[in-house]
Every structure is written in structure tokens, then in C-alpha cells.
Amino acid sequence: MGREDVSDMNEILLLLLIASLPALVYPLLYELGGELLRRIGIHGETAHHSAALVVSCSISLLLCFAFRTEVYGVISFNFGMAPLFVGILCGTVWDGAILAILQLLLYGWSFIETPSVTCLILDTGLLLYPLLFLSSSKFKVYARSGKYALLSLFLLVGGSISTFWPLLIRKNSIKWETYLLLTAFLITIFIMIIGLSVLYSIESLKEKDKLRQQIQTMSDRCVQRTERFQQLMDALPISIVLTDSQGTIYHMNRACQALFMSFSPAVEEGSFIGRNLEILLKSYHFETDFLQKNLQESLTSAGKLTPYEERVFYVNTCRIEGKPPLEEGVMVTIQDMTELESFRSELNNLDRLNLVGQMAAGITHEIRNPMAVVRGFLQLMREKSPSTLDHYYRIVMEELDRANGIISDFLSLAQNRPVYKETASLQKIIHELIPLVQADANLRGQSIEVDIEEQVPEFEMNAREIKQLILNLCRNAMEAMEDHGQLRLRTSLLSGAVQLEVADTGPGIPEAKLDKLFQPFYTTKAKGTGLGLVLCRSIVERHNGQISVRSEEGTGTTFLVVFPIS
What is the pTM of this model? Predict the structure, then answer.
């Protein structure tokens, strides 16, 4: 091999390296350009991809043109065709236009020195530019194999034209040798290899970037779901603790932290992480034997009621299955059951009281029959006895009537029968009762003031029970007053409700006794049964209403009853 052959070989290798520059420079510019564009506020993959592609391919085109040469003085090396075709196919229309214009300007400069339109068209592959631009959009949606095939086809055609046309033009002045054809063929192959290597570098980097974006998206979703899971756990009113298989706490929600801090107020928030749960619960005197037992017996979920001082907690353990590399763990939930257990105890007591009430109702019903017989015989004995004994008979019969009234009120409370309601007018019921109440007040030397709101609409009620309610409240008021007292009966319309007001001018009730007024058998009257107000409250509650009382000693007492009418 002669000195000229060695020089040609060195130039060929240099041109190969220059043409391959985009494969090396593009990844670097892609990363640096992407970071720079993000800093100046330009986001998106297209922006830094285009910048990196145009810059790297432009550098390659400039250097390929600067170091262009010919082999054997006939065949020219146009390795710049590879980065040019890749840039047109992989970039945007503007990217391809910039590269194509640059290539034409470079060869246009040589055209000034050596005018030849044929050289300009064939060396640059200008005839293929329209096909390249038309294929660019479809090229981007092809799979990698399709992209390689299409690029290889364009480079094969373009490279063949660029390398073989000098031989065809000078066919009369040169001798066709095998080495010339082989050289032209090898140059075409090198152009294809360079183009494919540049395309491989670009596609590989884009796939890595796409994979990185997918990983980032998955990471962001994971963080969001973790935050949502944390928010969900913190929103739950149940205390939740997560431990590893050794029982070491690695997470707990806010409710659990608040619970443990209520046990140890001096402990700082977050100091429970890393501690052993069983030891921590033992320090608060919780029963923990079942924790290890549940885990040793591989129970998926198990719980137990655990007392703590005056409170009751339900501690539940749930195994968390973990596949390598994740470790198995345990979720422990602690729920304060004190209030629920109290309700359960009260419900059991109510069941027992209900049973006792049913039995007492049956017994009192049977008592009324002999009492009626006793009262009847007392009346017969009174008629046949001297008048000096009338006073004693009257006392006995009054006490029998009082006992019968207690039994009647007790039966009304104990039966708790369903209320059958129908639409009725409260004003009409009060108007019907006024003569009866007025007659009773006249006998006592008292007066009545009635103020009825006539615009109160009708609503669903049990008229018989409402009458009983009004009569009981009115008679209680009159019994609490002396002569010349005044009873005030008033109704008013509220927002979505009607208010019934029964007031007296009696001595009033001490504040200490107000809370006991609605307790069974509690009374402030000498001859009261203590069941009248209890029965009134029962009637009001069956009508979904509310009853309240306000009183001032020396001024009087007012009962307020509110019924919903919406």
C-alpha cells in the first residue's frame, strides 16, 4: 500500500468519525439542552430534541464539507448525507429545512468555485429531499425496524447516486476497474451504517427518556397514592399502627398518636416510631398476650376487648402479607369502645326494665279490678253509716281515686303503644278544651288568658294524646297556684315548628329541682303522683317534639312545647 493510499484511508476514517458525530454529540446536547430549556421555562420533549438534533447534525455537515475529499481523484466522499437524511426524517419540518438549506449553502459555495449544476444536485441528494419531507410524518410513527428500513432505502439510493455518478460521467476518460466499483459500493455501505448508527443513538435515547418519564410518572402516582393513603388513615377515627414482623412500629395515624399522647402527655409527637408495640402497650397496662398468640397461630385477623383504667378498647391485629423484597408486617387497630359498651349496658338495662314494665303493667291491671270492688262496697257502707263517718269515707275514697290515677298513668307509660296520627288543627283542639279548663279555673277562683295564633297550619298528631298533654299541663299549673292566680295559654309560629306555651303565676320551682321534674315519681305537689310530667314528655317525644321548662321563684313557671310542622 502506497503513501497516497494510507493518506486516503486516514481521510476516510476521519470522515467516518465526523459523520458519526451526531451519534455521540446528540445524547450530550439532548441532556444539556433539556436542562437549559427547562430552566428558561420551555418544557416538552420536542423543544430540546429539535435543538440537539439540529446542532449535532449541523456540526457534522460543516465538518464533513470542510474535510471532503476524493478517492483516486474520481469518487467523492459525501458522508454528510447520513446526518442530513436522519435530521430531516427525525426532526420537524423546520429542523429538516434548516439542515437542507445549510447543505445547499455549503455546496453552493463550491458551486461558485466550480460551476456544475449536476454536481450540486447529485452530490447533495437534492432529488430525494421532497420524498424525505413527505415521509417524515409517517417515519415518526413507524416501529424501529420500519425506521431502519426506510432510512436504509433513502441512504442506499442517495449514496449510490453520490458515489456512482462520477464514474458514469467519466466513463470515457477512466478505466473501469473492479476496485473503483468496490470502493463506490463500500462508501455507500458506510453512509448507510453511519446513518443507522445515528438513528440508533437517537431512538435509544428517546426510549430511555420515555422510560424515565414513565418511571417519574409512576413515582409521582406512588407518592400521590401514599399521601392519599396517609390522609385516609389520618381521617379515620380509629387508631392504626403498622409494625414489622418483630413488632417495631414504623407508622401510625394521627388518632393513634393522639391516643398514646393522652396516655403520656409529656412524650413528644413522633417519638413512638421505632419502639416495640407490645412493650409500649404493656407500659400502658394493656393486655398484650393475645398479640403474639395471634401472630404465632398465623391468624389473619383477630381482636379482643381490653380494659384500661375506666375505659374499654378493642384491639385488633391483622397480618400484612409481604412478598420479597417486602417484609411481612402487622396492622394493629385500637378503637375506644367505652361509649359503645356503655350504650350496650344501658340497652341491656332497658331490656330488663321493659320486661319488668310489662310484668308491672299486668299486675297493676289486675289490681284495678279489686280496687273497683272495694270502692263500690265503700259507697254502700257510706250510705248505711251515720253521717259522722262521712269524713273518713271521703278520705279513703280520695286515696283510692289517687291510687287509680297512678295506675292509669303508669299503664299509659308502660304500654308504649304505637301512635296513630292524622292531620289535625292545634287551634281547634285548644278551643274545644277552653270551656273545660275555664270551668276548673272558676272553681279555683283563677283566671285564664288565651292567645292563639290562628295562622298555625295543620300537622300530623294524635288528637287524644295532645288533649291529654294540654289538660295535664293546665291542671299542673292551676294546682301550683293559689286563688286569683292566672293561667296563660299561648301558641306561636316558629320557623318550621309551632310552640305551645303554658304559664302560671305560682310560687315557681327552685332551680335545683328543675332537672328532676321529668323523673318518674318525682313531684313538687303534696298530692302529686310524679307521673304526669313523665307522661307529658312521653307524648311530646312520640310526636318528635321537645318540651322544656323555665321557672323563677316568686314569679311563676312556664312550660314550652315545640312540635315540628314541616
Answer: 0.47
